[in-house]
Amino acid sequence: MPPIENLIIISPGFPKDEQDTHCLPAQQLFVKMLNGIFPEIQVTILALQYPPHRNEYAWHGNRVIPFEGLAYWKVFRPLLWRRVGRKLDQLFHTKNTAVLSFWLADTALIGERFARKYNLIHKCWVMGQDARKRNPYARWVNLSEKHLIVLSDFMADEFLRNHRKRPSRIIPLGIDPAAFPPNPGHDRTIDVLGVGSLIPLKRYDIFITVVAALKESHPNIRTVLCGHGPEEKKLRKIIRALELEENIVLTGEVPHSKVLSMMQESKLFLHPSEYEGYSSACLEALYAGCHVISFAWAEKRNIDNWHVVASVYDMIASASRLLNGTEFRSILVHNMEDSVKEIMKEF
């Protein structure tokens, strides 16, 4: 295929403006890095659900078309798909166009229909829970292995186990080293940091349990949990019940640049999620010099300073050992520049 001139990205959501650093930070970094490496490619993003309006806007020079998809539920969902399809028909004006869908969801359903209609290349980047068996779009869209990309070894195995297909490529979402503020070597005053949406899947009640156990041997332990979500009220109640108000700070949502700065001030990054495709936050924490402790593994190889544990007890033991003395060094596992180049090889 000749070099592409247009890339259409179909995503469940996208930042509502250039100041919105909370929404899908890894995906917006991918787009910005893509712009920098391939400035000749015109990028158009179709955001199906977020932001919740239908007014087109520019984001760092890229055209974003939102569809307010949350207004279409269940039996009305096909109406959204047709509406997006009509917009795609208007956008199509050259054979040198390719389609990239984020997540194996209705994003991929729409992208595959459009690509087949005009004989275009379509790739679907499977991002996490969409590799699970209960995802109906894996059956409905029925993409071949060569059209599927996953983030990690874990996801490739998971997809094969659940859908009897092994995606052809494993391409993680990398980080941008240049996004980190200069670190003058100040003390790491945060003992334990957590970052993520406060939802049941992330299991931040375990984060609190671990901190409560660590407090017995580290009475002045200082921890921070960044993020917001429906679990916040429940988590605050647990913190009060365990008398940890002086030890755990819930910050709510903070700008991504501030998150990176706090990682550089932290010793440990605790990630108790029960399921993870490949956590960009863990990769950022490693580059910031933290030791990462998680239950979920991403790669079959060992990664320095990433400690994968099997139980809450093991998480407590690992954290206690590391807090009693360890070295901190920056570890770059995946660079987003490489991720962009590998994705574009697919077209």
What does this structure look like?
It is a single chain. The chain has eleven helices and 14 strands. The chain has about 350 residues and is of the alpha/beta class. The protein has two domains: about 180 residues, Glycogen Phosphorylase B (Rossmann fold, 3-Layer(aba) Sandwich), CATH 3.40.50; about 150 residues, Glycogen Phosphorylase B (Rossmann fold, 3-Layer(aba) Sandwich). It has an eight-stranded mixed β-sheet. The chain has a six-stranded parallel β-sheet with strand order 11-10-9-12-13-14, sandwiched between helices. The chain is elongated. The model has no long low-confidence stretch (mean pLDDT about 95).
